[in-house]
Write a structure and sequence with these properties.
This protein is mainly alpha-helical and 71 residues long. 76% of the residues lie in helices and 0% in strands. Helix 1 crosses helix 2. The termini are far apart.
């Protein structure tokens, strides 16, 4: 049930529908914990977490661009 909740939460947040989301058990656990704890966190803590995640996403995308340039 947690997996369905996580997927539904992500779809609602992003305003998108995903037909299939393949995740490891660890990834599912991370998202389940976040879904549970986010409503209890302060707005400041949520913004910090969002910024951290966005920074990681940006770094990952830049790394992917660099790798494609090298190929």
């Amino acid at each position: 049930k947690k997996g369905i909740t996580v997927i539904a939460a992500l779809s609602a947040i992003r305003g998108i529908r995903k037909e299939v989301i393949l995740m490891t058990d660890t990834q599912k656990e991370v998202l389940a914990v976040l879904v549970e704890i986010l409503p209890k966190m302060s707005r400041e803590s949520q913004n910090y977490l969002l910024g951290y995640g966005e920074g990681m996403a940006m770094a990952y995308k830049e790394k992917q661009v660099e790798q494609t340039k090298e190929e």
